[in-house]
Amino acid sequence: MAVARAMTADPTLRDRFLDAMSATACTVSIVTTDGPHGRAGVTVSAMSSISADTHQPTLLVCVHHLSPAAGAILKNRAFCVNVLRDDQSAVADRFAGRVPVVDGDKFAGGAWTPMASGSPRVVDPLAAFDCQLLSHQRVGTHFVLVGAADDIFVADQGAPLVYARRAYATATPL
Ligand SMILES: Cc1cc2nc3c(=O)[nH]c(=O)nc-3n(C[C@H](O)[C@H](O)[C@H](O)COP(=O)(O)O)c2cc1C
Fold first, then answer.
1. pLDDT tens by residue, 57-103
2. Neighbours of 106 (CB within 10 A)
3. Pocket flag, ligand 1, residue 101 (CB < 6 Å)
4. How far is Cα 122 from Cα 108, in angstroms, rounded to an integer?
5. CA neighbours within 13 Å on the CB side: how many for 133?
6. Are 33 and 86 in contact (CB under 8 A)?
7. Taking Cα atoms as reference points, which of 126, 125, 147 lies closest to residue 79?
8. Which helix (H) or strand (E) holds 77?
9. Distances (CA, A) of 9 to 1, 13, 15, 69
10. Given ligand 1 and candidates 24, 26, 45, 65, which is best to mutate, with the most ligand atoms within 8 Å of its CB?
11. Mind listing the pLDDT tens digit for each residue in 113-158?
């Protein structure tokens, strides 16, 4: 497989890739799903717009193939991307498995409301995109999940939670 050959050719490439990626500033989102195949959620920084001019606007998220959220999204065929505010790092830590949660339930203690698809939305995110799963592709360890947004929430004001240099930050205008 091409990826495995590249890693063998230059064993430093993986570490340099991670170091370089840590220098990129990303927003932090909780990707959630709920439906017949269960409720799940995971913290991601890998989220990007694809196009506003597809039949419905499209975006992508990348979720580890072993994450329960990936399996649930693939089966429920729907997910919600909750873009967090800069005062919501505690939620990010909870869904990243960085802090213990009651009975293993990452959703406990938070305020949630269902989007049209049934996927949970943080009550007060900076933005939220409720998506139907359009397509998916496994690339190495992660699924690239493409969603078609059919409902969108956007807050009037607020700043995004940013992740850069392996730490949370906030974005201030220059
Ligand atoms: C800021 C931040 C960004 C992350 N971004 C991603 C991501 O884009 N995709 C992913 O699969 N995991 C990402 N993770 C790691 C997952 O949140 C973490 O592995 C989590 O424990 C997975 O939980 P699960 O096993 O219940 O799915 C990120 C973690 C943090 C703290």
1. 999 999 999 999 999 999 999 999 999 999 999 999 999 999 999 89
2. 23
3. no
4. 12
5. 25
6. no
7. 147
8. none
9. 13, 9, 14, 33
10. 45
11. 999 999 999 999 999 999 999 999 999 999 999 999 999 999 999 9
Rounded distance between C-alpha atoms, residue 169 and residue 89, angstroms = 9
Reference 81, options 141, 51, 126; nearest CA is 126
Residue with tokens 């698809």, as numbered in its chain? 117
| Ligand 1 atom 25: residue of nearest CA | 67
Q: What is the pTM of this model?
A: 0.95
Which residue puts its alpha carbon closest to atom 28 of ligand 1?
44
Write out the two tokens for 172.
């201030």
Residue 130 and residue 149 in contact, taking contact as beta carbons nearer than 8 Å: yes
CB of 46 closer than 6 angstroms to any ligand 1 atom? yes
Domains in the chain, CATH or no CATH each: 26-157 (2.30.110.10)
- Is the CB of residue 84 below 6 angstroms from any atom belonging to ligand 1? no
